[in-house]
Amino acid sequence: MTPGEPAGIGPDLAILIARDAFPAAIVHYADPGLLRSRAAALGVAVEVHELTDAAAARPLPAGHLQVLPVPLARAVTPGRLDAANAEYVLRCLDLACDACTRGALHAMVTGPVQKSIINESGRAFSGHTEYLAERLGAPLPVMMLASGGLRVVLLTTHIALSAVPAQVTASRLEAVISITMRDLAARFGMATPRLAVCGLNPHAGENGHLGREEIEIIAPTLDALRARGLRIDGPLPADTAFTGTHRAHYDAILAMYHDQGLAALKAVSFGDAVNVTLGLPIIRTSVDHGTALDRAGSGAVDTGSLHAALGMAVEMALGAAAGG
Asked: Whose CA is closest to 290, among 127, 151, 157?
């Protein structure tokens, strides 16, 4: 686990989940002094164990936390961002990612980062998904958020809304859908997953009256994929695709852009959803919320999303082991 932005609630979450025993070994890539000071601020009795090798990690009883030390550049005040620690955040990500790549760890769970402060430090950063994909040489990472039976996949992620239509191409649709269907089968044990695909425009274009992307790009691409045996429906109007009936009928729903899909998912499951990156050679899950700087150090945070992210990482790791 990487707790993320040190001035945010990520360190709080790391401390709070350590109050309970967990059936897997969790290694936190963080500054141990930061975790100890945050535990003291929260009034939580947690013993921090420093490791020199991630492979030495073991499941621990409640009240214990193991950390592979990564030093901060500057002391942290909860709630106060400092660009000097941007490299620390990225260093934690790099080390955890590399440990997964070499097989010392089986999955990576990321806490929330503050994109703005990383960019202000001079490092271009659009998000965990893109950063990890570049480091791992994955040509097309696919973002999926999941909660209960609802899984929402995004065709495009952190780009301006005005840039979305140009990214709705046959080649991108085919690639994202192929990755999604492959990983639903390989990592979630779905032999023949069923996918719903949203249209780009209101009412899925209203037969061309509200846009022609559905007619000229999306529908022909889906027809070609269905001819290959994939179980896909669409393009569907996005304003009804996330209703209860549809959610029960499909294993995942593909949205064309970030807010089209995630506004719907977070409206029904904020705080319990898990961010999963498909298309990577490693397993990566994440919380579905931000750094909540105003709550850092207060203890007034909900650990539900992190517990869900850890649980899904374990489930996916066990599934990968069983399958290979």
From this structure: 127
Using DSSP, state whether 77 is helix, strand or coil.
strand
**Fold match between domain 1-138 and domain 139-279:** yes
pLDDT tens for residues 235-282? 999 999 998 888 889 999 999 999 999 999 988 877 678 999 999 999
Show the tokens assigned to 297: 């150090």
Instruction: Evaluate the CA torsion angle 184, 190, 191, 194 in order and state its sign.
Output: negative
Topology given in CATH for the domain delimited by 139-279: Isopropylmalate Dehydrogenase (3.40.718)
Please report, for the chain, the start and end positions of each structural domain, with discontinuous segments joined by +: 1-138, 139-279
Domain 1-138 has CATH 3.30.565.10: no
Pairing of strands 274-278, 284-287: antiparallel
Q: Among candidates 11, 1, 2, 13, which has minimal Cα distance to 302?
A: 13
Cβ proximity of 234 and 218 under 8 Å:
yes
Secondary structure letter of residue 35 according to DSSP? H
The pTM of the full predicted model, rounded to 2 decimals, is 0.88
Whole-angstrom distance, CA of residue 322 vs CA of residue 140: 25
